[in-house]
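User: Design a sequence. Structure:
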């Protein structure tokens, strides 16, 4: 019986083909694993971005709701200020002052601050509303010469700008 020399060579070629197939399967599995890991990392990054945006939206919504409430309250504070200035009864004025101070304290606890410009400050259109221009020998142009009404802000949100007169 004679052995066919081609048979061992065929087996060798078949073995090489099997090894190549197994290697290509391993390579393919490694590529699939890398792609799955990259997809997982992208999904985690997307989720972290979603969480960050959700937290930012919640903060913005809370601030916006607070600002809306404060906008509704500010006219009452201004009416109390006018009542304090124009009443001749000291007891009534004291009552209005106590009520106004309590409201301002409550607003401060919610993060609301007053915008109280000083005479001579430079006019800032982000914080102040110029109601009129006035000639002034004491101040340069575009400086505050009279404060007519205090403003309010909540963080970066200007609820009401301070109402002022500006030098011309």
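Assistant: Done.
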């Amino acid at each position: 019986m004679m052995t066919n020399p081609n048979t061992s060579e065929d087996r060798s070629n078949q073995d090489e083909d099997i090894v190549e197939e197994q290697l290509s399967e391993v390579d393919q599995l490694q590529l699939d694993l890398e792609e799955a890991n990259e997809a997982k990392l992208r999904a985690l990054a997307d989720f972290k971005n979603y969480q960050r945006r959700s937290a930012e939206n919640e903060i913005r919504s809370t601030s916006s709701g607070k600002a809306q409430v404060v906008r509704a309250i500010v006219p009452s504070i201004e009416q109390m200020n006018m009542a304090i200035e124009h009443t001749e009864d000291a007891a009534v004025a004291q009552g209005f002052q106590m009520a106004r101070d309590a409201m301002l304290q409550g607003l401060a606890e919610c993060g609301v601050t007053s915008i109280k410009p000083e005479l001579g400050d430079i006019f800032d259109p982000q914080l102040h509303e110029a109601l009129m221009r006035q000639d002034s020998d004491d101040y340069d142009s575009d400086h505050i010469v009279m404060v007519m009404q205090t403003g309010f802000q909540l963080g970066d949100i200007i609820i009401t700008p301070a109402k002022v007169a500006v030098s011309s």
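The chain has a mean pLDDT of 89. Helices lie at 5-86, 90-109.
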